[in-house]
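Quick entry between incubations.
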Amino acid sequence: MSSTTAQRARSTAGTDGTGKNGAGKRREGRRSRIVAAGFLLPALLLLGALVVYPIGYSVQRSLFDRSGSSFVGLDNYLALFTDDSLRTAVRNNLVWLVAAPAVATALGLVFAVLTERVRWGTAFKLVVFMPMAISMLAAGIIFRLVYEQDPDRGVANAVWVGVHDTFAESSVFPKARPLPVHPLEAAGDGAFVTKEPVRAGQPVRLPLVGVAPAQMPEGARPAAPPAGTDPGTVAGTAWLDFTRGGGGRPNEVDPAERGLAGLRIEAVRDGKVVATATAAADGTFALPADRADGALLRLPASNFREQYDGVEWLGPSLVTPAIIGAYVWMWAGFAMVLIGAGLAAVPRELLEAARVDGANEWQVFRRITVPLLAPVLAVVLVTLMINVLKIFDLVFVIAPGSAQDDANVLALQLYRSSFGTDADLGVGSAIAVLLLLLVLPVMVLNIRRMRREARR
Amino acid sequence: MNGTQVRPSRSPAARLASAAASGAVRVLLVLAGLFWLMPTVGLLLSSLRPSSDIAASGWWEVFTAPARLTTENYAHLLANDTITGSLLNTVLITVPATLLVLVIGSLAGYAFAWLEFPGRDWWFLGVVALLVVPVQVALVPVAKLFGVVGLFETTAGVVLFHTAFGLPFAIFLLRNFFAEIPRELLEAARLDGAGEIRLFTRVVLPLGGPAIASLGIFQFLWVWNDMLIALVFADSQSPPITVALQQQVRQFGNNVDVLAPGAFLSMVVPLVVFFAFQRQFASGVMAGAVK
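Done. Structure below.
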């Protein structure tokens, strides 16, 4: 069937002429052939030398070893599934292939449908589509900044730590600890507890060391000497028992020493917390005597927890999802614009009819819009899959040197195998051929579609 | 047209629900829009901060002290010959690679659409087949080939490579567009005695304007934004901006005052092209969905 199509196409092409006959027609034919050759020559030369010939070269080279001198058959292809670093690349590419197109397409679909409902939809589309115009290198640098580890610099961790600290109490004095001469000892689980029970009317000293002056809370003021002779309370002072430049006496409140503002203090009796207090700016605190008298004072571990530092986005385990995030940022706009164009072609009457029949928006979306858009969604998904298969720049730029092995993908490995210091052109060519084989179905699809259109 | 339109027949409860839903949609879209803008805004603001500030805190701190913003990073960058030179190299690669694709592509597109020669449709299918060939397949073989003919690590080599890989899409797009030109127009010109070349330059090219514009913008951005091809084929002494910046990324950390303005500078031209020619860009991207 396919060959008859071609014949028909050719025969119609042949009878298209203006009806000359004999030698004149033949001369005309030769002349037009020469003209056509002239028009096509530059394109065919470039395509032949730089696209077609390389395919042949890569296929042949992939069957030879590193040096290119001895034939190894399919060994280079087998290496893709046996060699550790190559296997990581194959596995990561699979993750990319499954996750990135699906997420980008889903977001594009949601955006395309929702933007139809607001008047400033065009402005929104512009914002989301914009990253398509910039280079993957620029996007890579943008996301290197986003993913910086230090929550004070990278916005992803700033937000993450912010959310985390809202739900988990943040510590004020990481690494603070008592000296042996102090009346406090470690309670085992990161907390500190007084060696002796406290008594009402007897001032309590809670000195600690090990806080860098710069790390002290901004509101901390010079500590007030322990003064708590009121029999109705257990009172005292928690302070940083350290005088910068020396000269401080241990266990005494010296003039330059500041209160541990915000330190949480618990009174514990028989393992149960009976009262709590927080140290004021000058370090003073007070607990009701009726409950705290005779109890031990504990400084809970939450005071001393290491500061939460956020997520290591570009560490070994998260680097691939993090880069996929950057990719989705770039390509969701592409999906949105294509799907939006498809949406414009969906007959409105159909949607309206469904709404009149009582379908809610979700049902309209799920049962009518999405099925009607299926062909567009397929095109978007396939396009993104082809694109993701060859992903290189984003990984190369975003993954730090130490994480490049963990973030490895086929195209990156191809680059390393082809141009690195320990290049293996056999493996490099095998990856190239593999990439080509993977896009082959799409190639066939394109050709089929072209022929169908030519028949019309 | 408007999906949130409320029909009078609806009950007050349904109307309330619909109003709430459209409010939720608005909030969601505003949040998503901000989310999408934030990374780029972060880059722009970082590029405008003194390097001591960049090292100490995140870009969002500028809102507490906007007076500290400065253009000194850009001044340093523009005084840096490597960066300005690499921007020039990008132009020297992008402009010829775009023009060559347009010229060679429209010549071939015209031949496939309107000239008679044996096997025309087969040749065209061959070109369509090349649409999806990944550039990676050609890196090593073309590097060897360029090495033999002395084009390796030259601007001309980069331009030729870009042209070759831009051609399948160019020919595909332009052939389809040219084929839509009414036959009568061409016949009339032929009867007036116009040769093929005259026909091509006087009739086909002007009519093909919109497609050529879309293609040109698409190819321009494609080449401008490329890093991989330049990484392999460009002279390491005179790289385009993407490669020059990539070399900086390797020491990412204390060079944000170079990277951020550099990245932004490299984005200016694509962004201007994007905002000026949104429609052509979108249609180019859509037509290129098969690439």
